[in-house]
Amino acid sequence: MARTALVAYATTYGSTREVAEAIASTLRAVGVDVEVMPARDVKRLDGYSAVVLGAPLIIHKLQKDARNFLSRHQKTLKDLPVAVFVLGPCKEPRDEAEWHDCREQFDKVLAEVGWLKPVAAELLGGRFDPALLKFPLNKMAGSEPASDARDWSAIEAWATGLPAQLGLAS
Question: Which domains does the chain have, with CATH numbers?
Answer without folding.
Answer: 4-166 (3.40.50.360)
